[in-house]
Amino acid sequence: MARVRFPRSAPRSSLPNRQAGRISRDWLRPFARVWETMFGNGKPRPVPLVEEYEPRLLYSADVAPDALVLAGSTQVVEQRTIAPDGEFTGTAADTQVRRHEIVFVDAATPDYQKLIDDIRRGAHDGRTLEVVMIDAESDGIRQISETLAARKDVTAIHIISHGADGAVHLGQTVLNADYLTQNGDQVALWSSALTEDADVLIYGCDVAQSDAGRMLLAQLSALTGADVAASTNPTGSAALGGDWNLEFTIGAIE
């Protein structure tokens, strides 16, 4: 910045063009330029105009915790281009879905490890499996509820237990039509942990053998919002006359 120097005071007799106590305009002109520079020339100055920008997105190269793909979540990678009118356009280029499934196993069920191994072998497509053992002396349905209360985005529930027509034995508790009539609100809370297209797969003998068993599955599907499947015949080892197929389904099992 240029430094402005003012002339030092001079004796009255040395002031240029001094006539009748007046000072010439030529001598005052430098002061006028300084005054104009500092305070303006008396004309209105433009007032700064503050305008609001349109909403904008700021992108960062940092990895945010929310950007991490967790089990059971969906990540959409989208490529965007700018159209001639300045708007963003683009379509989803790639979608990755990781399925999170929970296997609840009644510890009193014989040969359950074989079924777990079979389920694990089928999990090579990106599924993650969580195995929860149900104590034979506990309230198995409550244990399932407590486990699901701490989970989100579960895509499938596998229940491996003893079964009978219209009944699933879970520890010391029996999941049947009477239980759902009295404790339907508790089972309905399972839906908070499930995805919209979740499945509930019940591996137990003869659970859906008759209309009573099929009504049980319909109740379970209505309460949880899930697709449900169960067996209509013995379940288990082929050497004992059983199989691991679930012959009766409600909804589209994935």
Describe this structure in words.
With 254 residues, the chain is an alpha/beta fold. The protein has 5 helices and 11 strands; from the N terminus they run αβββαβαββββαβαββ. β3, α2 and β4 form a beta-alpha-beta unit. α4 runs parallel beside α5. It is elongated. The two termini are 75 Å apart.
Write the topology of this structure.
Layout: H1 25-39, E1 74-82, E2 88-97, E3 100-106, H2 112-121, E4 128-134, H3 140-149, E5 154-160, E6 162-164, E7 167-170, E8 173-175, H4 177-188, E9 194-203, H5 211-224, E10 227-230, E11 248-250
Parallel strand pairs: 3-4, 3-5, 5-9, 9-10
Antiparallel strand pairs: 1-2, 6-7, 7-8, 10-11
Helix pairs in contact: 4-5
User: Which stretches are poorly predicted, pLDDT < 50 over at least 5 residues?
Assistant: 58-81, 91-95
Q: What is the averaged pLDDT score?
A: 75
**Head-to-tail CA distance between termini:** 75 Å
Structural class: alpha/beta
What can be said about this structure in brief?
This protein is 24% helix and 26% strand.
Relevant terms:
11 strands; 254 residues; alpha/beta
